[in-house]
Amino acid sequence: MSLRHALLGLLSQGPASGYDLLKTFDVSLANVWPATQSQVYAELGRLASAGMVEVSAQGPRGRKEYAVTEAGRAELRHWLTQTDPGPLSRRSEMLLRVFFLGEVSPEQAHDYLRRQAELGEERIRRLAPLREMVSTMDDSLSIYGSLALEWGMRFSALQRDWALWAEKEIERLPEHRRCEQPNTETERT
Amino acid sequence: MSLRHALLGLLSQGPASGYDLLKTFDVSLANVWPATQSQVYAELGRLASAGMVEVSAQGPRGRKEYAVTEAGRAELRHWLTQTDPGPLSRRSEMLLRVFFLGEVSPEQAHDYLRRQAELGEERIRRLAPLREMVSTMDDSLSIYGSLALEWGMRFSALQRDWALWAEKEIERLPEHRRCEQPNTETERT
DNA sequence: CCAAACATGTAACATGTTACATGATTGC
DNA sequence: GCAATCATGTAACATGTTACATGTTTGG
């Protein structure tokens, strides 16, 4: 139930509407905890019912600005200090595929890993410019957000380096068994 | 819908029952694509309806052994070569918390990062012995599985190193603003 | 004989995604 | 006036988790 805490966290930086929060999700939290519009509005409603946020102002177009309550702040702090995040949210489609790379030709396996290396590299290039951007801001979110950004950079480098290593690794595989069907990815439904 | 492909992948190593597959999930795939019993049996049913697997033998206790069909193999290969995994499954509770570390005291933030470093270290120690184990086996799953294992080792090291770096980073934060409430994590509902 | 392991399945619930539906205000 | 943006909400569906429910075989 961490969307709840994401919302409490954002609101603890100051009051905002669902619409505002949504934009923050798209910008700051997109790579860490994405959320859809439906989710945000629904959860805001639940948080209000639970007394963790309250409507602090109303604007045009039915705009409702929410502010976190003391109960909400307490919940946020509790979540933050009650350390141990439910174990890293594992489940990697990328790695799952690796397990079954023996089902395709060595060339295809090679291509797959090469592609993963490229994706890592691309991600690095995509994140790099953000570094400069956040360094010019100084709200609490950006400061700590830049730690998350650094994580993303390191993670992307890991992906790239690991994929390049793995590529070489399968090359020197004690003769490639399993060459029954050299290539059978042609037409499909 | 990758559970489907995980099952096809496992069955392509040889026929197995839901019960067998479940054990494989607990052992090999646990860190990459966990699945529950309910999920496995349900998906096997769907795969059978779709003609991607078929019951190849029946055993005692109602045991049904499934084998992948040619259609299933085609689907698996398609999935493997149709590269680009739906972007890395992001969503990290660990990083989400980092964003809001400004809400707790510097000491608590420090403790949090230190704990993350420890968890990384622990994970390294937990994975290390597996390395030896897989090197003695030689089925396709283990060979490629060891690539995934290496990824896990590198990932854990990343977590540890990053957390240690981040810990130092917040230490030298241009004076800690936000010291309204030094510590308010006491009793709770 | 009885416990452990084998073996399968269903139901209730939580979470997340996509698409639909609606309307008000602002700026040009 | 009209398009873009602001703004909120609901419904249908997919996926995943937990708990319940049941029965068989093997080995000691």
UniProtKB/TrEMBL annotation, chains A, B:
Pfam families (UniProt xref): PadR, Vir_act_alpha_C
GO molecular function: DNA binding
Keyword DNA-binding part of the UniProt annotation: yes
Domain Transcription regulator PadR C-terminal: start-end pairs: 91-170
Domain Transcription regulator PadR N-terminal, first and last residues per copy: 7-77
Gene3D superfamilies, per the entry: Winged helix-like DNA-binding domain superfamily/Winged helix DNA-binding domain
Keyword DNA-binding among UniProt keywords: yes
Domain of life according to the entry: Bacteria
SUPFAM superfamilies to which the protein is assigned, alphabetical: Winged helix' DNA-binding domain
Keywords: DNA-binding
Protein name listed in UniProt: DNA-binding PadR family transcriptional regulator
Organism annotation: Streptosporangium saharense
